[in-house]
Amino acid sequence: xxxxxxxxxxxxxxxxxxxxxxxxxxxxxxxxxxxxxxxxxxxxxxxxxxxxxxxxxxxxxxxxxxxxxxxxxxxxxxxxxxxxxxxxxxxxxxxxxxxxxxxxxxxxxxxxxxxxxxxxxxxxxxxxxxxxxxxxxxxxxxxxxxxxxxxxxxxxxxxxxxxxxxxxxxxxxxxxxxxxxxxxxxxxxxxxxxxxxxxxxxxxxxxxxxxxxxxxxxxxxxxxxxxxxxxxxxxxxxxxxxxxxxxxxxxxxxxxxxxxxxxxxxxxxxxxxxxxxxxxxxxxxxxxxxxxxxxxxxxxxxxxxxxxxxxxxxxxxxxxxxxxxxxxxxxxxxxxxxxxxxxxxxxxxxxxxxxxxxxxxxxxxxxxxxxxxxx
Length: 375
Description:
The chain is an alpha/beta fold. It folds into 2 domains: 10-138 and 324-341, Rossmann fold (3-Layer(aba) Sandwich); 141-315 and 350-370, Dihydrodipicolinate Reductase, domain 2. Helices cover 34% and strands 28% of the residues. It has helices spanning 19-31, 44-57, 70-75, 88-100, 115-127, 142-152, 173-178, 191-206, 323-337, 343-363; strands spanning 10-15, 34-40, 65-67, 81-84, 104-107, 132-134, 160-170, 214-223, 232-241, 247-253, 255-266, 270-273, 285-290, 293-297, 300-304, 307-312, 369-370. Helix 4 runs parallel beside helix 5 (115-127), helix 5 (115-127) packs antiparallel against helix 10 and helix 8 (191-206) packs across helix 10 (343-363). The longest helix is centred in the C-terminal third of the chain and has 21 residues, at 343-363. It is globular and about 75 Å long.
């Protein structure tokens, strides 16, 4: 990737020192058109420590500034865009402040506690005007472009009928008792927000941003830290029902071992993606198209798999071609263009609306919740 000149690079600040920000430190460096200039936390020593530790793994020159308040970062004329990995429960205030300060915003997911809050956040971004995007990395993988070609070629998959996905990890016991993702004021959606967001997004992407007509959701298990006001989902399943009979089922969990697969099934075949969120380590990404043939000759009943493996030259992580570097590169290119892309706030809001409806269904004895097809 050719690096932009220092004069044309988008200048970034990170608002907070969450663990995911360590990964995105390197992604910013690898993007080629971005430069990280500042990191802020409520404790300047924490910012210094974060910068010091990240510099050991991925050197950025000049060294980003350590700031002791979020306000200082937003007031800086040296910052064009901010990455906000703060807890979901705190995010709205700082998105509103960042927009008012004229900073473009890359927001971690889930974007907000509810769609009402997110609408306020997006309205502020439009009013000021700044680009908004959520941090769903797989949306920026070249594999998704190739998968779209297969879905649209009318022969490999045919018209879609069913989308299924799962994203889970088996958290250690201390996670359930101490992590912010089991605190309802900080992360009110639990595993549904942390993991289910990706499953919902994949379905909306596959359906070309069409909204489902109705959804159902079920909390399969829940837990909370001792200081959490309410329990949060630690295991969740949902169903989305689209027009023309297309349906989606997803499962997400903090208590089931690592899995992150997706199947997209049509009338002629199906695509299998075993690692749709976090690509398996390596220098290429892949998925399989299956068109099974069932043949009968007398007493010979034979199912023939006929798999076709499709690959994309793209590193899984820590590389300029990786999806997280693509995310920052794509965002910074939008900023540099001077034109806002409203598709990104739109898909974020649709994801939030579906997530909210799934949770509403789960809290009302799994009753179906109807959605409006337009925003």
